[in-house]
Amino acid sequence: MSIRHGLLALLEHGPKYGYQLRSDFEAATGATWPLNVGQVYTTVARLERDGLVQPGESDAEGRVTYRITEGGRHEVTQWFATPVARQGRPRDELAIKLALALTTPGVDVHRVVQTQRTATLRSLQELTRLKAHADERSDVAWLLVLESMIFQAEAEIRWLDHCETRLAVSAPAPGSTRPASAKAPRRATEVSR
Question: Which uninterrupted H or E stretch holds 88?
Fold first, then answer.
């Protein structure tokens, strides 16, 4: 998610100063993406530079409120209308970790998988507990974030199960001198063709 677009969406509700934006952002995302105030003000400064927000009046404590401009409204409307591209996803640290574990001498890949599965199951239990205590009517945004995290955890567990199966199937045959993982890996560009 773009912090830039998230802050613009929050400003659609009315003028806010930095700390309000931070609090509202964390409330809307269930604090799953914590922001520091410096990050908010840096982003707001860029939004102002790009003509997407305007500073308003300062209050008695010197806090400046910002309001969204027509350009900002157009930008956030375009953001909501555009699907999230999955091709440009950030690198998956867990997939990279497992790939490297396969080629690093002395690393027990099965233990790495089990350690991750245990941590993911604990996280899934906590997320499920949080969901059970959420109010179905007033916590809709929080529930959507929680459910997304639950689905991601469930998918990770399924993937880890798949990894264990793949490791078992590709284990070197008795007497083999070349581990199955020593084959040349396919590049991501080859997979997408």
Answer: none
Residue range 3-81, CATH number: 1.10.10.10
What would you report as the CA-atom Rg of the chain, rounded to the nearest whole angstrom?
Answer: 23
SS (H, E, C) 134-170: CCCCCCHHHHHHHHHHHHHHHHHHHHHHHHHHHHHHC
For the segment 59-82, what is each residue's pLDDT rounded down to a tens digit? 889 899 999 999 999 998 998 888
Structure tokens belonging to residue 143: 């529930």
> Domain coordinates of the chain in residue numbers?
3-81, 93-170
Q: Would you state the pLDDT for residue 11?
A: 94
Q: 3-26 in b/e burial notation, b at 16+ Cβ within 10 A?
A: bbbbbbbbbeeebbbbebbbbbbe
* CA quadruple 156, 158, 162, 167: dihedral sign: positive
CA 103 to each of CA 91, 100, 108: distance values in angstroms, whole numbers, following the listed order: 19, 5, 10
- 130: tokens are 């949080």
CA 130 to chain centre: 18
Task: Give pairs for 90-96: CB < 8 Å, separation 24+.
Answer: 94/156
The amino acid at 74: H
Q: 175 — alpha (psi -120 to 50), left (phi > 0) or beta?
A: left
Whether the pTM exceeds 0.90: the reply is no
Helix (H) or strand (E) holding 7: helix 3-11
